[in-house]
Amino acid sequence: MNPYVSSLMSDVQAKNPAQPEFHQAVEEVAESLVVVLDKHPEYRSAKILERIIEPERVVMFRVPWMDDQGEVPITRGFRIEVNSAIGPYKGGLRFHPSVNLGILKFLAFEQVFKNSLTTLPMGGGKGGSDFDPKGKSDLEVMRFCQSFMSELFRHIGPNTDIPAGDIGVGGREIGFLFGQYKRIANEFTGVLTGKGIHWGGSLIRPEATGYGAVYFAANMLETRGETLEGKSCLVSGAGNVAQFATEKLTELGAKVVTLSDSSGHIYDPEGINAEKLAWVQALKNKRRGRIKEYAAEFPGATYTEADPGADHNPLWAHKAECAFPCATQNEINVKDADNLLAGGVYLVTEGANMPSSAQAVEHFIDKNILFGPGKAANAGGVAVSGLEMAQNSMRYNWTREEVDTRLKMIMKDIHTATVGAADRFGTPNNYVNGANIAGFLKVADAMLDQGVV
Ligand code: NDP
Ligand code: 2IT
């Protein structure tokens, strides 16, 4: 390891114990930036990276609520406001039992670079709770959201910090959160994104992360004179990002053969066409069922139960050309990376945040495959959140086509900036370095301009 990174990481680990995902995210960025900091001693002496690593503010609070049995579960709420150099804090809320300080700090840290790449004026933040929406009634989810917002509201605002969705937070949760914010603040503002279409939401926001990841993949393939048409694709997850990645891939002539949830994955060699996807969307978004049911519904498809003790995920062992991890962090370990490469995959586009372990990323880069890291490839979601904020400020709505055209342009700009920075700093085709460097430079220059704050 580079001596600067090694000393930085000892400090980060000492100051932030038991936060492995945060350490992983910081180390990757620091490794990419060594060459930049060598060329620009002004960033090093102003401690720009060290300052970005230390969140501007961390809020942690109690969220008591009452379940349908009259019990009072105590859950924990968080909002991590990492950096506001180029705009108000912006980033999603995650409701999942695995949520803790370290996971949200990694997500908020990544968000700073991602938001910078979008070309829009947004700083970085993230929040959430260890509340598990799975198996809860709508009323339980509403009571939880109201309690959560009763504290969160004092830390956010349309010019301060604008949360949105992430794992476990979709249209239903954003609705309950917005209702409570509006009631407390007595203001109808664009304080959250991912809102309903008739109350301030933007067209294409639900689709944006998945669509954007596919546009990014198409841009990557274009550098090799190829398109997605006819390509066989592995997609993980079955939530927001996975659903709309599948929709766009199918529309562009690719064949998606897998989907998953935390219980297991389905493999459909015929491909998950529009009609089957509509069934999955009803299953997941309305009935809130499990992906296992797909195999019973569609003959020819198989279901494989997840084995938490296994050293690899069999989803990544199917033969294909492209892979779109769209579930969660570290879902591709080094064995999975080997399986992907052995199965013929030469494009990995991360719809999820940090779905590939550090070692898996190393394998992809070593083999010189097209590897699109999440902070570039999945930035379409937050980009359209930025467009939702713009529309809210104008009190006007763009059409579906207008938003989609802007999303395509933004993904293209992110691709160009990423490839350009990788080239300029001596690691051509390395999208990891390119995204980290391009995302960093804009924030770093803004921080230099704004003095020691
Ligand atoms: P959803 O809650 O809609 O879906 C998440 C999916 O991933 C579900 O199928 C879920 O299965 C699965 N999953 C979640 N946690 C795990 C786990 N620990 N192990 C295995 N499977 C898991 O979330 P999104 O689709 O919104 O988010 C997916 C990923 O994309 C996350 O990494 C998120 O941070 C990232 N992302 C999301 C954006 C957005 O706009 N929504 C924007 C950019 C990135 P199950 O139902 O069993 O839990
Ligand atoms: O990880 C992410 O970029 C998101 N969950 C979306 C954030 C947003 O503010 O739209």
- Average pLDDT for all residues: 98
Write the CATH architecture name of the domain at 208-377.
Answer: 3-Layer(aba) Sandwich
Overall shape: it is globular
Order of helices and strands: HHHHEEEHEHEHHEHEEEHHEEHEHEHHHH
Give the strand content.
5-15%
Please tally the helical runs, counting DSSP H or I stretches of 4 or more residues. 17
Helix content: 40-55%
Distance between the termini: 30 Å
Count of extended strands: 13
Spatial strand arrangement across the major sheet: 1-2-4-3-5
Please, could you describe this protein's structure?
This protein has 453 residues and is α/β, with parallel strands linked by helices. Among the domains are: 55-189, Leucine Dehydrogenase, chain A, domain 1 (Rossmann fold, 3-Layer(aba) Sandwich), CATH 3.40.50; 208-377, Rossmann fold (3-Layer(aba) Sandwich). Helices cover 49% and strands 14% of the residues. It has 17 helices and 13 strands. The chain has a five-stranded mixed sheet. It is globular, with a radius of gyration of 21 Å. The model has no long low-confidence stretch (mean pLDDT 98). The structure holds NADPH dihydro-nicotinamide-adenine-dinucleotide phosphate and (2Z)-2-iminopentanedioic acid.
Key terms for this structure?
453 residues, alpha/beta, Rossmann fold, five-stranded mixed sheet, five-stranded parallel sheet, binds NADPH dihydro-nicotinamide-adenine-dinucleotide phosphate, binds (2Z)-2-iminopentanedioic acid
